[in-house]
Amino acid sequence: MSSSDAVDQLIERDVFEAVDADGLRPTESFREAVDRHRRTLSDRDPDERGAAVGALTDDPETTDAFAAAGVTDPDFLARYVALRNRTTDLSPAQALTLTVVIGQFETGAPRADGAPAAFLAVDGADLVRLVALHERCVVYAWREDCPPCDAIRSDFDDLFGDEPPGDLLLLAVYGPDCPRLLDREFDVSGAPTTLFTLDGRVDSRFVGAPSTEGLTNEIETLRERTPPSAE
């Protein structure tokens, strides 16, 4: 799901509203729901917040996923609960992605000018959360003034267009914004780097610009791999 697609979905569901010709903000009713859930979750110990989310959304599977991934931030969890309770037609994976987009309106959007069209631009903290919570991800770390980055972005645009696939979460992160986090969490020390993750772990990677054929083959391999959780 690209950032623009995500915003369109949030407007359709009355989570966002127009402020002026170019501006958006969460609706008052949604902000009130987030504040209410934030107070509830902040009163819980961090290791109890996943269970509280499950009770508030009637979704025990998500509870287990948050616990396994160590996601305890009350702001993130409050936005997720408010969104799930308002939009019951969303899958947990879709709701997680939209929760990140909502948070970007509060904390500031990450750089996206070098992200392929179908990729969701994220900061380092949201990258760690989303990779941990999704079965299969393609992560593209980029920097500016980088011809190999431009080549990979063009290949991704050719492969996916502006419509993200339903079976992969496509994420783009501007490497210079979080170099220490990328090194610590994913052993990434330069850009361009492309990661293919399975059940929250890096399954394979490209450092530098791969061939278009190599990139295509690695994406298909990721789709065909059996996640450890399913074995």
UniProtKB/TrEMBL annotation:
Residues 36-55 are annotated as: Disordered. Residues 36-50 have a biased composition (Basic and acidic residues). It comes from the Archaea. InterPro entries: Thioredoxin-like_sf. CDD domains: TRX_family. This is Thioredoxin. It comes from Haloplanus salinus.
